[in-house]
TrEMBL record:
Domain of life: Eukaryota
InterPro entries: MIT_dom_sf, MIT_domain_contain_protein1, MITD1_C, MITD1_C_sf
Residues covered by the MITD1 C-terminal phospholipase D-like domain: 50-197
GO cellular component: midbody
GO biological process, one term: midbody abscission
Full protein name: MIT domain-containing protein 1
Amino acid sequence: ATKDEAKKHRYRQKISEYMTRAEDIKKHIEKEKQDGKYHKQIRIEENATGFGYEKLFQEYLTEIVSEVWVEDPYIRHVHQASRCLLYNFLRFCEMLVKGPCKVKTIHLLTSYDEGSGRSQQISGLEEIQQSLRNYGVTLNIEFSSSIHDREIRFNNGWMIKIGRGLDYFKKPQGRFSIGYCDFDLRPCHETTVDVFHTKHTKKM
């Protein structure tokens, strides 16, 4: 709104400098992505909230994502419903189904539950598998006794490693407490999230 031409010139110059710098940063990040050197780290503090799956993953779920790999040794049944890690995986799948990506295939590599929980784990995963099929998504399930790492990969090159895997949420105070249904409101355990971009996504 200023009529001072000198001020106008300085403002335009500053805006131009900011725009150029923003473009340079964007190019630098893009180059790091292409070189497979991009690395971003997110620290989730003890009892922090606001870290639901959408918050954590949505930035990387672009429209071209059609295939997802999940490696987590603890996608299994725990007797308390609020700690059933199968529900965590189910909620992750729900996020993928909602888009904006067009996921067609999800690959899950996990380990067998121990003892009597194995049959419940298998039936739960099969139920998720059938439900996903109704949305045109194929879930491929594999089991490994030696898996230790936890990572999630998308076929657009993004790879996310979470120290606690998908199980970084604390047990809610009760079945009718805030945060039981909405993971954005659920307090978290302390953990670290590392985000990388690689040219070639490893296949299982």
